[in-house]
Amino acid sequence: MAQRVQLHEQATALLQAPPPGIEIVDICPPDSFTAGRFTRKLSELQYGYEAGLEAATRAIGEWQQRCFAGHTPGNRNAFV
Fold first, then answer.
1. Helix, strand, or coil (residue 17)
2. CB 28 within 8 A of CB 51
3. Are the C-beta atoms of 45 and 35 separated by less than 8 Å?
4. pTM above 0.70, yes or no
């Protein structure tokens, strides 16, 4: 258990201060998300899945807009 706590603390530290040149996109559930580790209620699990999918899709779109802003569409060498 101690090793698990240590790994969690290391991961948290990395998320809070990533290495230079690395951007971490943190996708969090909405405040209305109520499912826990042991939730078995299908409606709560379905809501969580759909909320996560929506949040991830939105985050990917925002990330793409930031990354490709000012680049010509189809120019695959823009980041090489």
1. coil
2. no
3. yes
4. no
